[in-house]
Amino acid sequence: MRVGRQKRQRKTVRFYTACFGFREPFKIVLDGTFVHHLILHALLPLDRPLSSLLSSRRVTLFTTACVCKELKSLGHAHVQTLRSCEGLKMARCDHQDHRVDGSSCIASIVGQDNPEHFFVATQDSDLRKLLREIPGVPVIFGLKKSLFLEQPSENQRQFVKSAEENRMHMTESEYKMLISNKKELKRKPSILVSENSTMQDNLENEAQREEDATNIRSTRKMLETSKFKRKRPKNPNPLSCKKKSITCPSNAKDQGGRVGNGTSRKRFRKRKRLTKAVQSELTSQTN
């Protein structure tokens, strides 16, 4: 299906869903001519091309007992069409005693306002012309291997426009109710004034209560979030502190017995130690 044609089909489906209350799964009633067209062009199974046409995941197909009887009377040439119709759901009609042709049966089911929200699929040009005059009846037909959904007729569009205008106007019962309400308002103005003042006071009290509750919540939040911070001793200012001096050790002596960094060095006295022979001689002299 081409893009432009698919957009037109979707727009038509939206028209019927918005203006006439069609809902998924869509119900489609088929006559014998349309079923024969689908079988002739191998558009099987029957629900697949119709669901693709309406852009719906699921559709429910119907036919009538009068359509089946009409196909049965046509003989052996329409046996396959008859079997396909017998496999569909049967829409209830009022022709149990005397059967009529399929077009008349479908027209009677649709009625004047299509209460069951049926899509009608037919190849009968006379039936299609008749259904265009009835508001809220979408018509489907086939052309070779393609299926088409007819655009809403001018009669259907005019019906929707007039119905919308009627909904905008006031009915007689609504007008009478409005007049009675106006008279009631004139009789009891003081009651309305008192009610309005009471309502205004209630609203002001409610607003005040909400404001107080908000203030309480904000105060609680502030108390919960604020914590006592204990003062602790801080480090001294690094700019006010004297830097440490770096000493460089040196073994070289300077003049006056001073070391390289300017400090005096301690002097040790050298002691002379006597030999053992001298010590023994001294001890003998003392004795």
Textual characterization of the structure:
Residues 277-287 have a biased composition (Polar residues). Pfam families: Fcf1, UTP23_sensor. This is UTP23 sensor motif region domain-containing protein. Residues 194-287 are annotated as: Disordered. Helix 2 crosses helix 5 and helix 4 (65-73) packs antiparallel against helix 5. Helix content is 52%, strand content 10%. It is built from eleven helices and eight strands. The protein has 287 residues and is an alpha/beta fold. The chain has helices at residues 3-20, 32-40, 47-54, 65-73, 79-86, 102-110, 125-132, 154-168, 172-187, 189-225, 276-286; strands at 26-30, 59-63, 89-90, 118-121, 139-143, 146-149, 253-254, 258-259. The strands form two sheets. A six-stranded mixed β-sheet has the order 3-2-1-4-5-6, with helices on both faces. The N and C termini lie far apart (150 Å).
Keyword list:
287 residues, alpha/beta, six-stranded mixed β-sheet, two-stranded antiparallel ribbon, 11 helices, 8 strands, 10% strand, elongated
